[in-house]
Write a structure and sequence with these properties.
Number of strands of chain B: 13
CATH topology of the largest domain in chain B: Dihydrodipicolinate Reductase, domain 2
CATH superfamily of the largest domain in chain B: Dihydrodipicolinate Reductase, domain 2
Strand content of chain B: 15-25%
Distance between the termini of chain B: 33 Å
Largest interface: A-B, 40 and 39 residues
Largest sheet of chain A: 7 strands, mixed
Radius of gyration of chain A: 22 Å
Structural class of chain B: alpha/beta
Radius of gyration of chain B: 20 Å
Strand order of the largest sheet of chain B: 12-11-7-10-9-8-13
Oligomer: heterodimer
Number of strands of chain A: 13
Helix content of chain A: 40-55%
Order of helices and strands of chain A: HEHEHHEHEHEHEHEHHEEEEEHHEH
CATH superfamily of the largest domain in chain A: Dihydrodipicolinate Reductase, domain 2
Number of domains of chain A: 2
CATH class of the largest domain in chain A: Alpha Beta
Distance between the termini of chain A: 65 Å
Number of helices of chain B: 12
Strand content of chain A: 15-25%
Shape of chain A: globular
Shape of chain B: globular
CATH class of the largest domain in chain B: Alpha Beta
C-alpha cells in the first residue's frame, strides 16, 4: 500500500516534469525574434535603438527586431513623407524588409504593430492574431472605437496575447499614481498633453491619446460620461467616474507643449510630469512577449478609446455630456452590422 | 439751443467728476481708523494682523477701532464664529457697537467682512451714504444682481469700493500675467476647496477662492461656462474670447489645497497658492490711502457672472451657458432695486 502510494507520487512527478519540459521546448528560443508592421513612425527607430542595442541586459536583451513590413498611408502626410526614410534606416541596421505581413509572420515570434495611422491597424493585425503571434499595437490602437473593440474580440477569439498603450502610461511617476499613489486614494486628476489633430482620426486618437492615457493610468477605469469644450488652440474634456470622481484632459495645440497631471488625493495634491522615455514601455512590451500577460487590460484600452470617442460626440452635441456606454453600444452595433454584411 | 444743452451737460459732468475726484483724490491720510461690519469670518485673524503693534509698512498705518458684529442666524458657522470672535476683538482694542450707523461715526474706512454674502448690499448702503471707502470681503454679495447694485451705488455716491478673495494676491498668482517665463497665458487649470452653503450659489461661498485666482491669471474676457458637478468635486470650464480656456476644480472630498497649472506660450508653470492674508490687507490699506482699488468692478462682476453661469449650467444638465445671458438677467433684476 505504501509502495503503491509512493509510485503514484513518483508517476505524478514524472508527468509534471515531462509536461514542463515539453512546454519549454515549445517556447521559441531567446532572444525572441520581433517583426515590425508599419515603418512610418519615429517609434520604430526609437524601439530598435533600445531592443537591438547589444549592451542592453535583462528583458530588453531577450527581444530583437529582425524584420519589418513598411506599410504606410498615402493620405497621411506624416506617414507618406517618412515611411521610405524610416525603412532605409532600419535596413541599414540589418533588419530585413519584407513585402507582406504574411512573409513577416514566417520570420518572427512576436509583432510590434507600429503604423502611425490607426485606420489600417485592424486589417494589419488580423493575420497576426490568426497566426497567434503575441502583438503590441502602438497608439492609437485603431482608427475607430468599433475597430478597437473588434481587435480585442479577435484577440480573445484566437487566444492571442495583445495590448495597446501610449508610452506615457509607463512613466514611473505616472504609473506610481496607479500602483501605489503617494497622495492617498486618488479622488481626481487634471491631465494634459499636446493634441494636434489629424483629419482621418477622431480628435484625441491621433495625439491626445498620450494625455488621456496618463489620465486613465492615474484614475483607473470606471468613467461614465464626458463633456467636451473645444477651441482652435485648446481642448478640455471632463470625465465623470462612476464613484463621482472627476478627471479632466487638457489638449494643447497653442502654446508650449508638455505632458503632466495634477492628482487630487485624500492625503495630498501632487503634480506629475513626464519621466522616462520609451524604454520603460519597451521593457513592459518585452515582459509581455515573454509571459503573454498584457500590462494593460483590453477593457481599459477600450474605455480609453470610448472616452475619446465620447469627447468627439460631445463636441458634435455642442458640449453636452455623452455617456461611455452609449458610444460603446453604437460601436458594437456598427461591428455587428459589418459582420452581418460580410456574411452576405 | 443744442449747443447750450451740450454745454450744460458738460458742466454738470465736470461738477460731478470734480466732486468725485475732490472726495478721493487725496485718499485717507494714515493713521486710518477702520471699522468692521460682520465679525463672523475674517475679522479675528485680520484684526490680529492689523492691530499688531509690531506691524510695519501699510499694515502699521491702519487700526481696527470698532466693529459691528452682525451674523446670520440661519448659518450655524456664522453664529459660532461671531460669538467666538467677540472677546479676542475686545482684547485687541476693538469697540463692539450695536449698529452700523454708530460704527460709521467712529471710523474713516470700512471693512465689510460678513461671512454671509446676502446681507452685504443692505450693510453697504449706509457706508456709501456716509461716503466711507469700503472693502467688501468675498463673496461680494449673495447674488450677481446684488453685486451689480453694490457697484452702482458705489458709483452713484462717488465712494471707492472693491472686493476680492485674498487668493488673488499670492505672489505667483498676481505676477503670472507679467512673468516673462510664461510668455502669454493660453490657459489655466485652477483648484481650491469648494464647500457649499445652501443660501449661496455653489461657488460664491468658498469656490470663489479658486475662481478669483483663475481670473487673476487669465484676465477678463470669459464668454461661457460648462459645469460638471458631483458630490465630491466640481469642474467648471470657461472659454475666453480668442479661444483660451480656463478651468476651475472645486474640491470637497479630498485633501484641501490651492494652486494651478498655467499654460503659456513659453512654458507650463505652477501658479500661486495661498500666501496668507497680509498681501490683501496691504492692498486694502493702499486702497484706503489712494481711493484706487486693485480690482475693477467689471472684473469682480465677471467673476460672479462666471460662478452664476456655472450654477445655470448645472441646472441645464451641463450645457455651456454664456456670461452675457446671466448678466442680462441680473442687470434686469438689479434695475428693479433702488
Amino acid at each position: 500500500m505504501r509502495f503503491y502510494g509512493m509510485t503514484r507520487w513518483l508517476l505524478a512527478g514524472l508527468f509534471i516534469l515531462v509536461f514542463c519540459v515539453s512546454a519549454y521546448a515549445a517556447e521559441p528560443a531567446r532572444p525572441l525574434k520581433a517583426g515590425m508592421i508599419g515603418l512610418d513612425t519615429s517609434h520604430v527607430i526609437a524601439f530598435v535603438n533600445v531592443l537591438n542595442d547589444p549592451n542592453k541586459t535583462g528583458d530588453l536583451a531577450e527581444v530583437k527586431v529582425v524584420a519589418g513590413y513598411p506599410g504606410g498611408s498615402p493620405d497621411v502626410a506624416a506617414s507618406a513623407g517618412r515611411v521610405d526614410m524610416f525603412t532605409e534606416k532600419l535596413r541599414a541596421r540589418g533588419i530585413e524588409i519584407v513585402g507582406s505581413i504574411d512573409e513577416l509572420l514566417k520570420k518572427v515570434d512576436v509583432v510590434l504593430l507600429e503604423s502611425v495611422d490607426g485606420r489600417p491597424h485592424l486589417e494589419q493585425v488580423k493575420p497576426v492574431l490568426a497566426a497567434r503571434k503575441p502583438v503590441f499595437v502602438d497608439k492609437p490602437c485603431a482608427g475607430s472605437l468599433a475597430d478597437v473593440i473588434e481587435i480585442f474580440r479577435l484577440a480573445k477569439e484566437h487566444n492571442c496575447p495583445c495590448f495597446s498603450s501610449s508610452s506615457l502610461r509607463f512613466g514611473p511617476e505616472v504609473l506610481a499614481m496607479r500602483t501605489d499613489p503617494p497622495v492617498g486614494e486618488v479622488r481626481g486628476a487634471n491631465a494634459y498633453g499636446p493634441c494636434s489633430l489629424e483629419e482621418h482620426h477622431p480628435d484625441f486618437f491621433w495625439y491626445g491619446v498620450h494625455g488621456v492615457e496618463i489620465l486613465f493610468t492615474i484614475m483607473g477605469t470606471g468613467c461614465q460620461s464626458v463633456s467636451r469644450v473645444q477651441t482652435e488652440g485648446t481642448d478640455v474634456a471632463v470625465g465623470t467616474w462612476q464613484d463621482g470622481r472627476i478627471g479632466t484632459f487638457r489638449g494643447i495645440r497653442e502654446g508650449k507643449r508638455g505632458y503632466g497631471a495634477t492628482v487630487f488625493g485624500t492625503k495630498s495634491i501632487a503634480t506629475v510630469g513626464r519621466s522616462g522615455g520609451y524604454e520603460t514601455m519597451v521593457v513592459e512590451i518585452c515582459k509581455f512577449f515573454k509571459t503573454g500577460k498584457p500590462p494593460v487590460s483590453a477593457e481599459e484600452t477600450i474605455e480609453i478609446f470610448a472616452f475619446m470617442e465620447a469627447a468627439d460626440e460631445s463636441k458634435r452635441q455642442g458640449g453636452h455630456p455623452v455617456t461611455i456606454q452609449s458610444v460603446i453600444e453604437k460601436a458594437q452595433k456598427a461591428n455587428a452590422a459589418k459582420a452581418a454584411a460580410e456574411k452576405k | 439751443m443744442c449747443f447750450r444743452h451740450i454745454a450744460a451737460g458738460l458742466s454738470v459732468g465736470v461738477v460731478v467728476l470734480s466732486l468725485g475726484l475732490s472726495a478721493w483724490a487725496q485718499g485717507l491720510k494714515p493713521p486710518i481708523k477702520a471699522g468692521i461690519i460682520g465679525i463672523d469670518a475674517h475679522a479675528r485673524p485680520w484684526t490680529k494682523i492689523i492691530n499688531d503693534p509690531k506691524a510695519t509698512g501699510e499694515l502699521g498705518e491702519m487700526t481696527v477701532v470698532a466693529a459691528y458684529p452682525g451674523g446670520s442666524e440661519d448659518i450655524p458657522q456664522s453664529i459660532e464664529l461671531r460669538n467666538s470672535a467677540m472677546e479676542p476683538l475686545k482684547e485687541a482694542g476693538v469697540e463692539l457697537l450695536d449698529s452700523i450707523d454708530e460704527l460709521l461715526k467712529k471710523v474713516d474706512a470700512v471693512l465689510l467682512l460678513s461671512i454671509d454674502g446676502r446681507p452685504h448690499l443692505e450693510q453697504a448702503r449706509p457706508v456709501f451714504a456716509a461716503k466711507k471707502p469700503l472693502f467688501i470681503d468675498k463673496p461680494i454679495a449673495g447674488s450677481l444682481a446684488d453685486a451689480i447694485v453694490i457697484f452702482r451705488l458705489a458709483e452713484e455716491n462717488g465712494v471707492p469700493c472693491f472686493s476680492s478673495s485674498s487668493l488673488r494676491f499670492a505672489k505667483e498668482t498676481l505676477g503670472m500675467r507679467t512673468n516673462p517665463k510664461i510668455g502669454e497665458v493660453i490657459g489655466c487649470d485652477q483648484y481650491s476647496p469648494c464647500s457649499l452653503e445652501p443660501h449661496h450659489p455653489d461657488f460664491f461661498w468658498y469656490g470663489i477662492h479658486g475662481v478669483e485666482p483663475l481670473f487673476t491669471i487669465m484676465g477678463t474676457g470669459c464668454k461661457s461656462v460648462t459645469r460638471v458637478h458631483t458630490e465630491g468635486s466640481d469642474v467648471a470650464v470657461g472659454v475666453w474670447e480668442g479661444g483660451r480656456i480656463g478651468t476651475f476644480r472645486g474640491i470637497r472630498d479630498s485633501r484641501r489645497g490651492y494652486g494651478s497649472t498655467v499654460f503659456g506660450t513659453k512654458a507650463i508653470l505652477p501658479g500661486g497658492g495661498f500666501d496668507g492674508y497680509e498681501p490683501l490687507i496691504v492692498e486694502i490699506v493702499k486702497f484706503f490711502k489712494t481711493g484706487m482699488g486693485p480690482v475693477s468692478a467689471a472684473e469682480t462682476l465677471e467673476i460672479f457672472a462666471f460662478m452664476e453661469a456655472a450654477d445655470e449650467s448645472k441646472r441645464q444638465g451641463g450645457r455651456p451657458v454664456t456670461l452675457e445671458s446671466v448678466m442680462k438677467k441680473a442687470r434686469e433684476a438689479a434695475a428693479k432695486v433702488k
